Amino acid sequence: MTTKRLEDTVGTIHIDLFATLDLVGQAPGGPDEDPEGGFPFGGWQAPLFEQSGGEQVAAGMQGLDALLLGRKTYDIFAGHWPHQPEDGLDGGIAALFNRVPKYVASRGKPDLEWAGSTLLGPDLVAAVHEIRDRHDNIHVIGSLDLVQSLLRDRLFDRLNLWLHPVVLGTGKKVFDGGAVPANLTLVEPPFTTPKGSVLLRYALAEGTPTTGDMTARG
C-alpha cells in the first residue's frame, strides 16, 4: 500500500466509463453484469472491443495504486480477476488489480473476500478524502451509482470517457441525476479505434459553465 507524506498533494481520482452515444453505461461487459430494470443489452461493448482500445485502457492504468468501486462492480471484478493467470493476455491488469488496495462503497455489509479489500464507512465524502490522502492514483471503473455521488460532490479529477457507436435507448446513464454544473478540459487528443469507439480524457476545471448569445453574432 502506498503511504503518502503529509506534505504531499492529494491523489488524483480517475473515473473510467464506457458508454454508448446516448450515454448508457449499464452492463457493457456481459449479459449478467447488471440486469437491473430488465436491461436487455448486457454485453453491448463486446462486439466493439478491439486490441487498440484495450491497449489504451491498459496505458491509462499506469501508476494506479488503488481502486474505488461500487458494490456491483466490485462483485464482478472479485469474481473475475483473482482467477485470471497473471502471465496471460490480461496478466498485467490481473496482477495490478489483485495487488492494489480495493475500496468498496456499499450501503450494506458485504463479505469482501478479494485480498486487500476495505468497506468504506457511511460518510462517502470523508472516506474519499482519506483515500486521496493515502494514494496517488485512484481509479473508479464503471460503478455508475457511486459515480453519481462523485459527480455531485465534485470528488474526481479526471473523466476518461469511452463513447461507442451504438444507441440503446434504455439503461442507466453516465450522467443520471448526480451531475452538477462543471467545466472540463480535454487533456489530450481523442483516440479513435477502427470500429469508431472514441476515448475522451477530460480534467475537471474551475468554475461552472457560462452562457452567451449566438444570435448576437453578425
UniProtKB/TrEMBL annotation:
Gene3D superfamilies named in the record: Dihydrofolate Reductase, subunit A
Domain Bacterial bifunctional deaminase-reductase C-terminal: 17-187
SUPFAM superfamilies given in the database record: Dihydrofolate reductase-like (SSF53597)
Superkingdom of origin: Bacteria
Region Disordered: start-end pairs: 25-45
UniProt protein name: Dihydrofolate reductase family protein
